[in-house]
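Input set for joint prediction.
Command: fold jointly, output tokens.
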Amino acid sequence: MSYSFIKQKLDQGRVVILDGGIGAELEKSGADMDKDLWCGKCSVDNPELVRKVHERYIDAGADVITTNTYGTTPISMKQYGYDNLIEKYNQKSVQLAKEAAKNKNVAIAGSVSTFGSFYRLGLKAMIPGFKEQIKILSEEGVDLIILEAMSSQADIVETIIECSSNISLPVWLSISCVMEDKKVMLGYNDTVDTDTHIYESLEVAIKNFTKLHKGPILIAHSDINVTGQAIKTAKNNFDGVLGAYPNRGYYEKPHWKFVDNMSPEDYLNEAKSWVKNGVQIIGGCCGVGVEEIKAISILKD
Ligand SMILES: [Zn+2]
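tokens >
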């Protein structure tokens, strides 16, 4: 467990394999999804299963696994009355990832997310929560922090970046994108029954994010059909390391709805096109599971 071999691979222009979605994979494996914290409670309620999901991704070839902390942000936990359990849930998730990665050449990404960071709360009120989750995961021993600012407005993304700017661990940034009039926009479209949320152009967003964020940027939790174009736009506006881990399916709270419209081979073909366009970190988000990670792991060199 360490970031040095990941850094070495990235510096050498090689491909790093990230895991697939955690929440959707837990659901597929029979775990209960919580109406408030989504998959966040599984680490305490069903630790064996969480460890197993991590192990399956490692066996499939993942170089980096992500902690099951997307849903256990201090901001969301406080909203739903879990104030006293923030440390316990987040620490337990790191411990499970560490157990799965023990004695293996696998790095652990601590997922610090904007889950539950609704705009009405105000940006200032989000800062303590972002900082708290970064602190807990860092102290518990993750190898890097991944800011999963997916589905969030640009100024929320900028706020979470600022909260990570003075830490000693490497920081990756994940953002989600949608298309509007053939232009890639920061935004999201998870559900089939609500409008697409569109914030601002990816081009403008990346220019602003990179004023503070110097680590890799990953196009995540986006439709696979948008991902290729988003990568091209990101590349035109950013010199650093790029990553991609799209979705498959859609969310109907608190369940991820799987859509069986793509084989692992199809996913591999998509991933090949991203790599051809300069992407170095590839994995999957919600609805992309172990079989797809196994398929794309042949792109490791
Ligand atoms: Zn996702």
